[in-house]
Design brief:
- The chain contains ten helices and 13 strands.
- It folds into three domains: 7-102, Orthogonal Bundle (Arc Repressor Mutant, subunit A); 105-178 and 287-315, 3-Layer(aba) Sandwich (D-Maltodextrin-Binding Protein, domain 2); 183-284, D-Maltodextrin-Binding Protein, domain 2 (3-Layer(aba) Sandwich), CATH 3.40.190.
- The longest helix has 26 residues, at 78-103.
- It is elongated, with a radius of gyration of 25 Å.
- 38% of the residues lie in helices and 25% in strands.
- A six-stranded mixed beta sheet has the order 9-10-8-11-7-12. A five-stranded mixed beta sheet has the order 4-3-5-13-6.
- Helix 1 (22-34) packs across helix 3 (48-62) and helix 1 (22-34) packs across helix 4.
- Strand 3 (110-117), helix 5 (118-135) and strand 4 (139-146) form a beta-alpha-beta unit.
- With 316 residues, the protein is α/β, with parallel strands linked by helices.
Length: 316
Amino acid sequence: MTRRHSIEEFGPERVSKNDCAADDLILLAEVVDAGGFGAASLRTGVSKSRLSRRIATLEEQLGVTLLLRNSRNFEVTEIGRQLYQHGRRVRAETYAATTLAKDNQGEPYGTLRVACPTALVSEYVGRIASEFALANPRVRICLNTTMGTAASQASHADLVLVPSVKGLPDSDMIVQRLAVFRYVLVATPAVAEAAGRPVHPNALEGVDAIGWGGTEESVRWHLEGPGQEHVEVETRVRFSSDNLMVICEAALAGLGVARLPEALCRPYIEKGRLCVVTPGWAPPSGSIRIFVGKAVEQLLSPCLGKSIAEHNGKLI
């Protein structure tokens, strides 16, 4: 039977500076945050084999198992989670010390990891990120796109942009509303014609719809109309995706009525490829929220934070 270890066992009398290097704890934190050696290698630039050797050496020095891994599973042990928390603190303090030394230069400095859905990157964020990188050569930007919401990227990013009416679940990140955007119901002219060119939402009952995520066969849309009137209609989900670009493509293909940000489908409306269904009635507006990691807020230079805020203003 394996004895369970407590972090208190690893005090100065057992773990000397030579036994447990701070950078090994940082690497442990990176591996756990990334969910595996391969992803951690991409994030850190350290080879997968070297990461594995460093963690194995750390386990040997401490006499404990920190990670349980095989070709299919990756699991952190109880003592591994305790040391992971220490590694995160060591990493934060290391970054803080580096930032403190650079702050007096008054120039943005550091690595900024941004997670953002593909639709936002193509419409807004890609251009702003490129402009920011050109204006701040000492900032390294890692912009990762997600195929749906950015919730799954929260633990791997410093900034997470989420287009949603809800917050980011299970996150200790600091949230600010960046911009508000309008939703519209759209379809191809042929689909709208087949539905009788509906004017009131009640005419949409049972119509083929393109859903957002999920596997439900039907979905209820909440719509707002003139005089603050509210209506809910139930539609049949013929196609669904957690990617706004895919939903837009499905609407263009004639698969049904879609609920999309007006800014995303405006070019297709102007070209006549899509039309607004039930004019005057629309889903509630959504928000683009920016989630900022506490480490970024506390550790990156104030100048960098100010520059980010100035560039974010272009989204509104």
